[in-house]
Records
---
Amino acid sequence: MLNIPTDLLRTLVAVIDMRSFTKAAQSLGVTQPAVSAQIKRLQYLLGYEVLDKSAPGVSLTPRGEIVVNNARRLLSINDEILHLTSGQMPGQTIRVGIPLDYAGSRIPGTLSRFRQQWPDVSYNVSSAPVDEMLRDLTHGELDLVLALFAEKPTIEARHVWTQELVWVHSDAVKLDAEGPVPLVSYGGDSACQRAAVATLHGAGLDCNFVFTSHSNVSLLAAVAAGFGVMAVPRGRAIRNKLAIWEDAPLPKLPELYCALLVREGGDRSAIEQLADYLKEEIRVDPTSVSAP
């Protein structure tokens, strides 16, 4: 049986009540493209148009009138259930996007500590390639994104700073002067891996991915066992007690730009405070430097 998500119905009702996609987006705390995408998805699920494109402004089709009238009833019941069972309306859910490099890092603990200040806040945290996260942020599907860039980002960010990348290794690792450099890495979507590969190729060196995992524990164990070398921010290497290869026979790694980006529109008070809190927590890296 087909189920219609209540968020799609709530978006439709907001568009009709405010007679504007832009105003509806502002009231819902998302962008106008996100509202348009939700209306399109609702119409796809229903199998027919609910908005009359031939009429000026925002107008409903006859079927759309039926949908909106019943949507109001359904949403009213939904909100009443939440109110009666919890004693209060649900708090804000902040949708956070983090890079693969930060999966398994201090982010979960940081979010938990922030909730002590905002007890009604809950989270929906996901990891994805940076281009995908930025697209979701633009469409209002994410509220806050922590992104890593090889160059200073040109898009507006609430906070930007740099982190120094270093090579880490163990005494057990052996490099073949004539062969590829063995790399331990999070994988292809990792900004640290991309920077390492680009640096090696720029120096005319090849590389071989000898151990790839999304588990931070597994990666640290692989480095300690001598599988290969890994590129990580200096602060993370220090916190995890990894051996930084200061005089490595490898080219020097570049700095990475870290940015915290907040979606436009809606009530951003908790989101902006979370961005500020994350910046202070993450930038305890001793080599992090604020970027103007």
---
Amino acid sequence: MARHRIRKKLIGEINVVPYIDVMLVLLIIFMITAPLLAQGVKVDLPSADAKPLDRKSQEPLVVSVTQTGEYSLNIGETPDKPLDEESIVNIVAAVMRLKPQTQVLIRGDRDARYGDIVYVMTLLQNAGVPGVGLMTDPSGAPRKRRNK
């Protein structure tokens, strides 16, 4: 009896089905995580050794937040006059269009709510401000923490 060997021909193809499965899983992961990453407020925090602003540069735009949650800008004849959110966005957007290098700072009252400060940051972000600075007490003396 003669044995016939059947030779199998090698297939020169790559099975891409596992790669497609992996790509679909990655696509789903990125679709879920991308909206979660876009919900933050962009803030450039200063380092621990903060230095005072350069007095030779132009005057910064300062948004003040009071303890009661009122907002004001250091622009105009009455810089302490409370402004609504829409006015702040419009004024800051106009200043940024005219002088895009203007520094924008937030001066928050010590007893202001954190949510009010974050809300001002989102307003400034909507007005086109690329980075926000936070003003601190220049005396450098730490204040005692209040117990409530």
---
Amino acid sequence: MIETSLAPEVTAHQLRDRLVEDNIGLAHAVASRYRGRGEAMDDLVQVALEGLVRAAERYSPEHGVKFSTFATSTMVGHLKHHFRDARWRVRVPRSLQERYLATRDAVERCTEELQRSPTLQEIGDAAGLSAEQVAEALEVGRALEAQSIDAPRRGEDTSLVDTLGTPDRGYADTDRSAQVGAAIALLSEEDRTILRMRFEQEMTQSQIADAIGRSQMQVSRRLSRSLATLRSYLAQH
């Protein structure tokens, strides 16, 4: 490892290059910590090396730590920013990205502490967010991964690409609409009202709760139960 107190004839540029060359192995080691998270290893190494160069440019013995320690911290920071920004397949505002990350961390903490799946309100309390913001953040999290059009569809032997450019399904959709209507008739009047508010009027769960005098959690549970009923009926018909 090179120290900045080496021969005075060594320029700052040469010193930076030597620090980088001597710690390339460290960059590979740091990058390997993030293997298996959906990113190519070569890309992770490149990000770590960028962090290494940045560390070499900024390092000074006055920091009071070894260069390897300073460089490791810098490389980890670069990798975390890479996963926070570059991995989002659908671009969303930074504020929503940060809200999702805060929500994800809160879910992990609450699950460990409660030994069960936490409610939206419990997650919100832990993250300093409202239950509605938590629900929105979890929805935003879906933008982390993009599905290939060649990937198989859940429960089917076809892929998304198989549905592109297919013949008109108008007749089949008409039958399906009748089946959906029959399934909805199985629900209570209040459950049907909640479905209309959510999917026809595009109201949020919080707005629905205020409108019908229920809690947001009750609305969420009734929506989930109603959708499960519809799916079950349609699967049998």
